[in-house]
Amino acid sequence: MSAARPVPTTAPCARPDCPNPVTRPTRRGRPPIYCSPACRARAKRRPPAEPILVEVDHGSLTAQGRPAGRVWLVRLRRGPHAVIVATGLGRTTADHLAAQITAVVATRSTTTGAAID
Known about the structure:
Radius of gyration: 28 Å
Number of domains: 2
Number of strands: 5
Distance between the termini: 74 Å
């Protein structure tokens, strides 16, 4: 009498928008969860992140007893998330701080230099 061979099973691909099934063989080891290497690579790719915006805006109207329009704040924003970095600033100081933050946060191209002698 011979032992019955296990039948390979199928399961949906782990990538949410992939309609292809994954055939899971009966061999030992970790079963595959993606239908192909290209599908696995697509699932692991992240969408590009939204840029970080540095904003200078009017601050509180009653801050430090100064008149409206003379109090500024600096805010960082990425998509729906925002954080206020500083409040109660003058316009020149707020613009200077925003420029410094922009210089730090700005993405820079990575270039490879020549070999060191």
